[in-house]
């Protein structure tokens, strides 16, 4: 069965994960991180993708981005992936694949969810116990969003801009978000929806996207269909109360 094309409407934020094949290391040195960052800047501009948050772990990458042209994210990730594999294989005298197939992604509702995905991404090194504070990790966007580091990669989303009138206010309020980690239920929702290519948001958001794209973006309800259950009950002369349905 052919793979379904990516759903990435213009202007809707997307959480992207790209993992190393068999969870092998994708970044071995500081030079590797620098090379990947440089090409991420190049291709995000080429394909009109705004990058809001990122983290480059040892064996995977998270991005939070918004496309401004059709197919921009897929084109960016394909070009970036190929370019980086060429570099990595040459640098480490290896051959073959580096990435674990296609990248994973999910659409993200701005209200309530977007800033939580920021947190989820930038707290990765803390959850992995690589650092105690997200500001200690160099290869993430926290130093930009939370500490004011200058970056020509980061594009500030309007939800981030709404945190304050000045850069200092926004950074202060952003840091305050990190006093609490991402709720466990939301943590699992982010992971599940990204892995399945669904949407992260409320039912209204998912239904609007389904209407826009013609694709279902939330899991089917579990359980036996009521209509089939009723047919079974009628054909088997079984008495069924409505409270049993």
TrEMBL record:
Protein name per the record: Putative transposase
Classification via PANTHER family: TRANSPOSASE IS200-LIKE DOMAIN-CONTAINING PROTEIN, TRANSPOSASE, Y1_TNP DOMAIN-CONTAINING
Lineage of origin: Bacteria, Pseudomonadati, Thermodesulfobacteriota, Desulfobulbia, Desulfobulbales
Classification via SMART domains: Y1_Tnp
Highest taxon of source: Bacteria
Molecular function terms from GO: DNA binding; transposase activity
Location of the Transposase IS200-like domain: 9-124
Biological process annotations from GO: DNA transposition
One Pfam family named in its UniProt record: Y1_Tnp
Species in which this protein is naturally found: Candidatus Electrothrix communis
InterPro entries: Transposase_17 (IPR002686), Transposase_17_sf (IPR036515)
